[in-house]
Amino acid sequence: MIEIVTPGPLATVQDLGRHGYYDIGVGFCGAMDPLALIIANRLVDNDDGAAAIEFTIGSFEIRFEQDTAFALAGADCAVKLDSVEIPPFWSAHAKAGQVLKATAPRHGMRTYLAIAGGLVVEPVLGSRSTDMKGGFGGLGGRPLKAGDRLPLTTPATLPIASDFGLDPRALSSFYEAGYPDEVSVRFLAAAEYSSFEDTALNLFRDEAWTIQPDSNRIGYRLAGPVLDLKAKLELRSHGIMPGTIQVPPSGQPVIQLSDANTCGGYPKIGVVIAADLWRLGQARLGGKLRFVEVSRQEAIGALCDRNAGMAAVFSQIGKSRKAL
């Protein structure tokens, strides 16, 4: 069991999302940075999709009520287990009664805490992810609060003999552990791309957009120049996905994220490629965001590169564990 002492601005139970129910209006949810979630789970020998805690902008504290192993990955918070510092992308042991505390990250937005064996929460529609709009999944379909207690699966043996972690250089080729303050994401042109003025398309690609403070897991609202259509456009509501970039009547883009609505009717100027969605999960409110247009072939190549990078990380984790 673990007890939430301080949840910070937002902490929820998340896994890799809820798939197969879009047709009945149930979104994916899941980790905003799935790569960090997977790495944290690998560090404690969990399945990639095991449920973990996603916490935002640090200020997070828990108390362990049993001996276990845990790992942290994602935003580089300053983390201490009692008085001992725990580096990012690191796996360690905790004893009953010890307190884990994370302060605000130097860079990045979200950190993932994986516990050996996983969290014991009931799956809903095949996932343990928290759907805050629907009010289900996770712990009662809501953010975690002080005093919440989460049961843990107790593995037969702890998966690590001693503490170990990842060398940041193993991540540098594709996954910036330092998360730049200005994030670039690649995008594909969407269905209504050609309906925008040429000037608007140039502005969309050339400007550094500001992520507005009222952004959340549903979507990032961006502030910048107004993107004008060539003519007024009336669209019926249609399916949208995480990564879809819509432009409402204000002319200010909105990027749909993990808790995205399943349908919408605003014109779509682009869609962030799958390989870069995790970057949005670590982009900070008030930070800058740039868009780089790519072809479908380049998007496929980027996904292959990302998968190869993750495979290299998994290989290092395996070698480090064998060396213990």
What does this structure look like?
With 324 residues, this protein is α+β, with helices and mostly antiparallel strands. The chain folds into 2 domains: 2-165, no CATH class; 182-293, Beta Barrel (Cyclophilin), CATH 2.40.100.10. It has 4 helices and 21 strands. The strands form 4 sheets. A 7-stranded mixed barrel has the order 13-20-17-18-15-14-21. The longest helix has 28 residues, at 296-323. The radius of gyration is 20 Å and the shape is globular. The mean pLDDT is 93. Keywords: ATP-binding, Hydrolase, Nucleotide-binding. This is Allophanate hydrolase. Residues 23-309 form the Carboxyltransferase domain. GO terms for molecular function: ATP binding; hydrolase activity.
Number of strands: 21
| Alpha-beta classification | alpha+beta
Continuous helix count: 4
Percentage of β-strand residues:
25-35%
Tally of discrete structural domains: 2
3D shape? globular
| Integer average pLDDT | 93
Question: How does the major sheet shape up?
Answer: 7 strands, mixed, barrel
Q: Terminal Cα separation, in Å? A: 27 Å
Helix content: 10-25%
The H/E string reads EEHEEEEEEEEEEEHEEEEEEEHEH
- What is the rounded Rg? 20 Å
Spatial order of strands in the largest sheet: 13-20-17-18-15-14-21
Low-confidence spans: pLDDT under 50, at least 5 residues? none
GO molecular function, one term: hydrolase activity
Protein name: Allophanate hydrolase
Domain Carboxyltransferase: 23-309
Organism: Rhizobium tropici
